Amino acid sequence: MSNPSGLLIRQATIVLPDGEFLLGDVKVRGSQIVEVGAEVSFDPSDTDTLEINAEGLTLLPGVIDPQVHFREPGLEHKEDLFTASCACAKGGVTSFLEMPNTRPLTTNQATLDDKLQRASQKCLVNYGFFIGATGENVEDLLSVNPTPGIKIFMGSMKGALLVSQEDILEEIFARGDRLIAVHAEDQARINQRRQEFAGIHDPAIHSQIQDNQAALLATQLACKLSKKYQRRLHILHLSTGDEAEYLRQEKPAWITAEVTPQHLLLNTSAYETIGTKAQMNPPLRSPEDNKILWQALRDGVIDFIATDHAPHTLEEKAQEYPNSPSGMPGVETSLPLMLTQAEQGHCNIAQVVNWMSAAVAKHYKIPNKGAIAPGYDADLVLVDLNTYRPVLAEQLLSKCGWSPFEGWNLTGWPVMTVVGGQVVYDRGQLNTEVRGQALRFDAGN
Length: 445
Ligand code: DOR
Fold this sequence. Notes:
The chain has helices at residues 81-91, 109-122, 138-143, 166-174, 187-196, 205-209, 212-229, 241-250, 261-265, 270-274, 287-299, 314-317, 334-343, 349-363, and strands spanning 6-15, 21-29, 32-37, 49-53, 58-61, 63-68, 93-98, 126-129, 131-132, 150-153, 180-183, 233-235, 255-259, 304-305, 380-384, 389-390, 409-410, 413-419, 422-426, 429-430. It is α/β, with parallel strands linked by helices. The protein has two domains: 6-59 and 373-430, Urease, subunit C, domain 1; 61-363, Alpha-Beta Barrel (TIM Barrel), CATH 3.20.20. Strands 1, 2, 3, 4, 5, 15, 18, 19 and 20 form a nine-stranded mixed sheet that branches. Strand 2 (21-29) and strand 3 (32-37) form a beta hairpin. Helix 8 packs parallel to helix 11 (287-299). The longest helix has 18 residues, at 212-229. The protein starts with 5 loop residues before the first strand and ends in a 15-residue tail after the last strand. The model has no long low-confidence stretch (mean pLDDT 97). (4S)-2,6-dioxohexahydropyrimidine-4-carboxylic acid is lined by residues 69, 101, 156, 183, 280-281, 308, 310, 325-327.
């Protein structure tokens, strides 16, 4: 693929920032969108601009996935920043925020710099990295840059990243004003229920051990501390109707929440069909929880969508519960999954764009992203809403090579993905020369 300094995307159905659709053109110069209109003028002698016929296709701002686990450094047998970013490009994900549970853990400036350096060398899309709280690195949490925020595992974690004691949590909430993102599960309740249900190898028990109450208790504690210090809080992968109903009553403007496609679309019945592939933290819940989460998302109680892409090898997942690791991949399927939901009437395309791009940029204060408008970065995805294709394991680019959604027939698959004005994915072909940029986060994070 050539690398022109401009793009002219012609006759796409463009989703505009106000949610309206425009049948028209988008002109890109360098890394930025310069013009959006029904018909943008073009000089045919300009050989430096690549003209793209997008008739019949829909143009969206690229997806910003605000919670992924890409395993590098240290766990590259599951995934690495190159394979993960290839999967992103194919899935229409043009930026991601990655979690600190790598080896070494991302808990200080040196480990953050190492990730940024690796990403600059091998990442096809834009990247940002959370700093992990250990309970002993409060100074680092306040000083490192750039980062979207502090990640706290209140539960479901072993080792230094587990911060479950209220007094230590309070110390973190009390100091500074940077965004805190929590994995909200109550470790004491999980420990107790692990003992009660010990010896059961049916993976369905996972959802009972780490039950709705475990999630609700931790979410309530995080909200209590956030309100006490008026501290910017984000609740990662909200999984229960109980938490959604609690937030509906108790959510001040400085608290946000996200949900994953799997917590909207899968439930405990998945253990019967895909076994430990359905095992994740927080666990899948009941169909009633699916329903309440959907309503909370549509009502704005839940602000945006993340995949929690957490790949493990098939061999690792094949171990007997509870030795099987928790987590499932997601970046290649999230956009078509949600666009298929829109086509089926559960939401609309403008909402999907808001949840997967605009709202993420807004709440993480990522400048110039999440909209198709002049002056914004040219991070774009052209999708085909006219055809349906199944999720096939052999087509996946994530190193783990499987998906909990295999066989699901989806529409809205990306046809082309553009990162910073460069075509990184075009009808099945990746341009592995493209490199993303480190994301910036405006003051306050
Ligand atoms: O299921 C999960 N797996 N949830 C997490 O929060 C961590 C993740 C992982 O890193 O495997």
